[in-house]
Amino acid sequence: MSKATGPDRRSIFDLTPEEAEQRLQPRLEELKKELFDNGLPITYQDARCPTEDHYVQEYEDGRVHLAVLDEETREFKFVKDISNG
């Protein structure tokens, strides 16, 4: 059987974490631009979030904030600036 040529057609689940990141990077950059073009931050959770209600928000100008999601209003509330760590 001959080896396939051209773009890698393996499922995302069959890729190493590094391969998956490389494959997804162009789409992530598109989404990031779309958010910033609409004045919205990139919002996600990571180890800097002390609870499940906390989120990191990255802004186009480089600011990075820790915010908490208000369950009642479904709005993010600023907690602190974590731009420098």
Tags for this model:
85 residues, 25% helix, alpha+beta, elongated
List the SSEs and their pairings.
Elements: H1 17-37, E1 42-44, E2 54-58, E3 64-70, E4 75-81
Antiparallel strand pairs: 1-2, 2-3, 3-4
| Number of domain modules | 1
Please tell me what the overall shape is.
elongated
Output mean pLDDT: 90
Global structural class:
alpha+beta
Reading the helices and strands in chain order gives HEEEE
Strand order in the largest sheet: 1-2-3-4
Low-confidence stretches: none
Radius of gyration, rounded?
A: 18 Å
Fraction of residues in helix? 10-25%
Q: What is the CA-CA span between the terminal residues?
A: 52 Å
Strand content: 25-35%
The number of helices is 1
Biggest sheet: strands, sense, closure?
A: 4 strands, antiparallel
Q: What is the number of E strands?
A: 4
